[in-house]
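Usage example:
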Amino acid sequence: MSYIHIKRPKFSILDKIYVVELVKGLALTFKHLALSVCHKSRGRDDFNSHGIGVCMEFPETRWDERLPEYYRGAPTLVHGEDGRERCVSCQLCEFICPARAIRVVPGAVSPDSTCQKQEKAPAEFEIDMLRCIYCGMCQEVCPEQAIFLSKEYLITPTDRSQAVRNKETLYRLGGTRKGLVNKWNEHK
Amino acid sequence: MSTQPAILPKDEAAAEGKVNVQINGKWYRFPKGTRIADACNSVGAHVPCFCYHPKLSIAGSCRMCLVEQGMPPRLAPGAEPVYNADGYQTISWMPRAVIACANTVAENMGIRTDSPLTQDARRGVLEFLLTNHPLDCPICDQAGECKLQEYTADYGRGTHRFTEAKIKKGKNISIGERVNMDQERCVLCRRCVRFMKEIVGEEVLGVVGRGGHNAIACHPGKRLDSNYSLNTTDLCPVGALTSKDFRFKMRVWFLKSTPTIDVNCGTGTNINIWTREQQVYRITPRQNDEVNSCWMPDNHRLNYKYINADTRLLHPLVRTDAGAPQRKAAMEPTLNMVSTQISKCDADQIAVVASARMTNEELYLTRQLVDMLGITKYDVVPRKGESDNMLIAEDRNPNTTGSKLILGRDGSGLQNIFDGVRSGAIRALIVLNEDVVAAGLSEDDLKGLDYLLCVSHNVDGTTPHADVVLPGTTFAEKYGTMINVTGRIQRLNRAIEPLGKAMDTWEILRYLLVRFGCDNEMITACPSARHLFDLLAGEYEPLQGLTWGAIGNQGKQVIETGVTIPLIEREKAKK
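Running the assembly step on the lines above writes:
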């Protein structure tokens, strides 16, 4: 283990009595109060909000376009550009999953697959969305770049069995991912 | 030399037939002829090996076990050896490393397993082994128990310096009925070649090609179809040889291994059962030099499918009226009903067919039951086959010796019971973990019975005719002991919990004994099969003084039967 020494800033006497900072903070609060009373809050037009402050009127207005690049939604499986199912059912995601949401039944690759060298593919792949905690460990651990967290945040099953997503659903939600994984190329 | 000790360590060690060896700066004593690899491993200085296996001849082909070695300097003519204050000569270290598997220890030898020279040598060897190794760990069944993976974590570089195209070899080749080969993953340790030649005695595998194109292959016209072929997949340190049965079933890091014994024949091969969540995935042999060395036959290894089969009995089945279909029932009312029904029968007309596949504890309670009810007609079903002159014994029952000792029966009286059933002298039959239809009774004979009680783990020929079927457990769900053909007592351990409502046979018998009014508190209040063993140990002379713990995972020799295991005899003769 290596230790990183963090340099702490030196505080002046003004910083230490924090009255100045307190006043600054209150000023910001009152500024927002004034803006919202005048219907001039930031992001108000974007959300089609009306009335005082900002109110996103879900579900007419949704987050979809506004989610940040790093947003972690439901995990999905992806196909490669070459149409190959990227998952080889190595079960590392199942192993790493802290909530034990993933269950993989490994199997041989289907005989009509274009990539016979891959040999192995999941026979069944289930993610229990009631257990998933959206940590993204499965995506991080995947050696095949096959599982990705999508931006999907609306998971509304009406019973428990609906919350378990099977392989077919996961591939449908994941779609195709750009960029080739050349590992299973015949010449590699 | 005034400072050297009066008796030199070398003379002390020589008196014991040993030699002094310095490993990583500390002095140890080993018997003469010990291999450097064994010596180092025994004191915790781990030496990585691919090709070395203690049961096979030495190949020295993988070079992974390189260690730095030194000896005292060679003396000039007429010079006297010089000893230091501890009585050892100074060690002059050799400039190059030696392999630890093919060299034996010598007096005053020095070995370094953690020196820069050793570490460099291992890193170099590993880098060469990895030049053509495919990066298919995600699809390799060996991942998780692969030596190459482990040593790469220890000595690997993390990056590749080999920029040329990798050599392509055969992948996913079927070389036998049960074994698959991947030549790219192979590190050419030739353990499989040596195993087939030396242990099985069939020259099936060999090495073909030159240089980087070296590969393991079958001799022309031959296939790896021996009944011991799956041992090569255990031996293979990498994923080159894999079992077709276990192919893509489960990653090994999810599996829990339980040490127990095989129940397919009288040898009682020591095994590990690998399970995950009540499901058995595979069986591998466990080393026991008195029983099975490191091996096991394929047909025994693969005979585990019935444990999780659809035919497993998970509930008691009860037929309330003659001719009516069997219905599922709860365990406790059924047991109560069974005891009432049995007590209505005349003891002379009851026969018990027990099994030599039952543990000693179960046989002991069977004995208690027949004694209590005054039943005189009881026996086990004998199973004889041919010995394969390796590990499979003639006796295909795992516990005939125990049955002789505890029940006093060896199967010779079974035909009398069957004749009694056919003639109508026996009106009620209690079948414990056996299939009497397979053993010789016809279905019509069973229909003539007034009462048929079956304890069975799977649906078999007998269960459809039974009035009551109680769900029993397979060997993977049992604690207990068995005595093998050579008279060695060995333990069974529970790998999975009993499936469904299944109950151990000893528990069923204990329940019945309680209902019949058994007053031995040691039995009626017995919480586990392990406690029953204490009773056994007090009652039977050969088991005197034994405890569950004392048997251990390697078993204990308790009876002299004169039967030997051919493979073990050959191995002992070799030494």
